[in-house]
Design brief:
five-stranded parallel sheet; 16 helices; 17% strand
């Protein structure tokens, strides 16, 4: 019987354990940041142990760092976490993409950007959205602090092989509809726990047509669909993305020959399969307090069906039957590990040429990494945002997690390119509406949500950015 992509990566990494039980999995790449790594380092220090494979560990600073006046830490605890990571990396010989450095960025972006994230690898990080790297045909997943320590000490981790799901995405996306809309649609239709216990392989012509950035968005939010893993089979787009990056394989041609074997065989089987035709998919926005509380832009908010709906409407101060353009937006956030890549900024920029942010909107753009920020500035992209009235920041997780001074003000509605819209996620009493970067940028200049498909037709004359 043939093998799935997941099995072709998983099986060669098993060091011990039987099928059906927990198995000891070798880890090729361990990505770390300042929040979930201190405990593991301290344990090594207390036990007099060394890091098992510092050369397979890569650190960055992203969660706690300010994105404005970046060396002025208002929170002493945040500064201590950053300084602790700096000290730990120096002591244990770990490469650190330090605060303010040329390659610093959100942990889920620096793996791909440095070329560290590659097909066929096992990749872990103390952060659930590590699934992002699965876009490269890797098994990539988030782990807890105790597991971080285990990888530090052994470069391996006990894991039970998940069930396997394939989602075949067919059809062609309309102009103004993006990868973010695909995953929000899936979560809305099936719920946030549908894929719990599964590894998802995204496949089909629509996935093949997505850029690497779009595939990363899908795998990133596989977590909000309930999955621990999201994967896409590597292809020429994958190879082209990795080639020439600092940590790309030295014998690149040989690596590609292996990577080309990483696909699901025709006779392989899955535990569950879905087919999604995206030909008529509309832009999505969330109205409530979980990623499943989203709808196509042109649909009215649903009637209350349970206590969760009732609580969501109360918290958001919205009502059934309302439209998205009636939401009283006052804040727009472009950023996060889901949608702060160069392509995301380019997708939004075509909606701002010749326009200004509405007077009642406070809009900020936080590139996900220093390379993205630098490229956007060199292209003139950053200046377009600045001229339109957006605040242009330095890289970091920023208002996605609101633990670094960047927050959505209390009781304010925000169009946000993040992955979660829980109560208080972006600040105490903040009200988050998840959407694509294009949708968020358009909302900033319109002053309210608007259909990107319609406006995309209006701005065609501007041409590509």
């Amino acid at each position: 019987m043939g093998k799935t992509l997941f099995e072709k990566v998983w099986d060669p990494h098993v060091l011990a354990g039987e099928e059906g039980d927990s198995q000891l999995l070798y880890i090729d790449l361990h990505l770390i940041h300042e929040v979930t790594s201190p405990q593991g380092f301290e344990s090594l220090r207390n036990e007099g142990r060394q890091l098992q494979a510092p050369e397979k560990t890569l650190a960055t600073i992203d969660h706690n760092n300010p994105t404005k006046d970046i060396f002025n830490f208002a929170n002493p605890i945040a500064l201590k976490q950053v300084e602790t990571l700096q000290r730990n990396c120096e002591e244990f010989g770990v490469e650190l993409l330090d605060h303010g450095s040329a390659e610093q960025g959100i942990v889920h972006m620096v793996g791909p950007e440095t070329g560290s994230s590659q097909p066929g690898k096992t990749i872990v990080c103390g952060d659930s959205h590590t699934a992002t790297n699965g876009a490269f045909g890797a098994i990539s997943f988030g782990i807890g602090s105790s597991e971080v320590e285990h990888v530090f000490a052994t470069q391996a981790l006990w894991q039970k092989k998940p069930k396997l799901m394939r989602i075949n995405v067919i059809g062609e996306l309309q102009s103004g509809v993006y990868a973010k809309d695909i995953i929000l649609h899936l979560i809305h239709k099936f719920g946030t726990d549908y894929a719990t216990g599964y590894a998802i392989e995204f496949a089909g012509e629509a996935i093949e047509n997505l850029s690497m950035e779009g595939r990363m968005t899908l795998c990133n939010m596989a977590v909000e669909f309930g999955a621990k893993f999201g994967l896409v089979a590597p292809d020429q787009k994958t190879f082209d993305y990795v080639e020439g990056r600092r940590k790309a394989p030295k014998d690149f041609d040989a690596a590609v020959e292996y990577w080309k074997t990483l696909y699901t065989d025709d006779d392989a089987t899955f535990d569950d399969e879905l087919v999604l035709d995206v030909s008529d998919l509309a832009p999505y926005v969330t109205w409530g307090t979980t990623p499943s509380m989203g709808l196509p832009y042109n649909e009215a908010f649903p009637e209350i069906s349970d206590h969760n709906d009732e609580r969501a409407y109360e918290y958001m101060e919205l009502e059934p039957g309302m439209s998205f353009n009636e939401i009283p937006l006052e804040f727009v956030f472009i950023g996060s590990c889901t949608n702060a890549r160069l392509e995301d900024l380019m997708a939004g920029a075509k909606y701002i040429k010749g326009r200004k942010v509405a007077d009642h909107i406070n809009a900020i753009v936080v590139p996900g990494s220093r390379p993205v920020k630098t490229q956007a500035e060199e292209m003139g992209l950053a200046q377009m945002y600045i001229d339109a009235g957006f605040e242009w920041r330095d890289p970091g997780c920023s208002a996605c997690i609101s633990m670094n001074g960047d927050q959505v003000p209390p009781r304010k509605h925000a169009a946000s390119t993040t992955n979660r819209n829980f109560e208080g996620r972006q600040g105490p009493e903040s009200r988050t509406h998840i959407c694509s970067p294009a949708m968020a940028v358009l909302a900033a200049v319109k002053g309210h949500f608007y259909d990107t498909r319609l406006d995309d037709q209006e701005v065609q004359y501007h041409g590509a950015i």
